[in-house]
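Section 5.1 Outputs to date
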Amino acid sequence: MKLSLAYRMSELHPTIPYIILVTEDISPESIESLEQHNISVLPFHKIDTPYLPTHKARKYQYTKIHLWSLTNYTSICHMDLDVLPLADLSSLFHCGSFCASFRHSDMFNSGVFVLRPNMTIYEDMVQKIGQLYSYDGGDQGFLNSYFHELKFAPMFDDVNVDRQRYSSSMMT
């Protein structure tokens, strides 16, 4: 799936870097294969869930928090590897400091979101691991707790990126 997403992103956005964050669980052979396909690879240590005794699955980790530390980028559109975009995503890079799509009620999905890297937020998130409630034991529950006010944020207008109806640093 990594290569399918990389290929699709290169078709849609040939000038926007496509980067995969890898943890120590990824083999050197896999990393070499990714790099041979012109995929930039950034190694980060895995941040396990503080709920590891009750959530042993590999998906229950907080590694996505590292995205906020990538301050050499202005804006990041994060996509889990099971996502395949169908259309141009460039307008998303204008949505604000944090944008996500709600999946039901007042909870957003952490499989796709946009952020502006910020070391203050990153360091605060790292400090709050184990303190903030995570309804699923993983990053999605943690991020929903951390950005709990997002449910009150205005909708992002991807058609009129320069003329948003409401002023806000966060959008849904």
